Structures are given as C-alpha cells and as structure tokens.
Description:
The chain is of the alpha+beta class. Helices cover 47% and strands 22% of the residues. The chain folds into two domains: 5-80; 88-143. It has seven helices and three strands; from the N terminus they run αβββαααααα. The longest helix is centred in the middle third of the chain and has 21 residues, at 60-80. The two termini are 25 Å apart.
Amino acid sequence: MEAVKPVINPLGFWLTVSDEVVLMGNRFYIKATATLTDGTSTYTSTSYAREEETKKGMDGSQITGSSSSYARKYALSGLFCLDDNKDADATNTHGNDDHSEFILELKNCKTMPELLNLYNQNKDSVESNASLKKLFAERKNEIK
C-alpha cells in the first residue's frame, strides 16, 4: 500500500482495506475489501481467504492474521491488476521435494525485502531443510 500512495494521493484518491470474518457453510473466511475513491468515483475489489482450523506453529490469532494478509494482498492485486508471480501458491511445491523453483527464486532475490518475503512465504520448508536453510543464509550474506 505504501508504494501506491504517492501515485494515487496527488490524483485526489485514497485507499482503504477492510476485513470481515464471514461464515460459509461450516468454515470461516476472511473477506478483504480494497476500496479506491476520490469521493465521487469508487472502485472496489474483494477477495476471500479461508482460515485453517490449525496450522503447525501458529496460534489462532496468527492463523487469522495470515489469512487476512493473504486476502488483502489479493484484493489489492485485483483492484490494481497486479500479478507478482511470487506468492505462496507459486512457490509451494505441494509435497514435491524438488526445490529447483525455490532455488531459482532465491537466486533472483536482489534486495533484503525480496529475500525476507521469499523466506516468509516458505518459512516451514526453509526451516525444515538444512540445505535450503544454508542456501538461504548464503544468499542473505551475498545481498548484505
């Protein structure tokens, strides 16, 4: 959101993002709505993310926060027609132990924020795999 403010504010627009917990069937979802307005014209985009009942190493508030972040990201992506191709779905190997895609993304990280974002999206995989953890640490030292 910080990156878009310098672009939209001089044009007289402001951006808000809100969350709502909704129950669909027997599952809770986070509904995020991104709204861009100048007071006259309003543009919105909505996205949903399902809360997992449990997630290893996370308490309830962390699960909700994670779902909120995911839903907000996609609401904003929809509003501004963005596609960064580096989301958790793109980096998830779905049980496949071939980490070549992750390693390529790791090598493509040029800044610490990019590296941190990749780490956060793949934290469980990195922390549970000694070679990935080592590669990650080496890349961190290269970027510094």
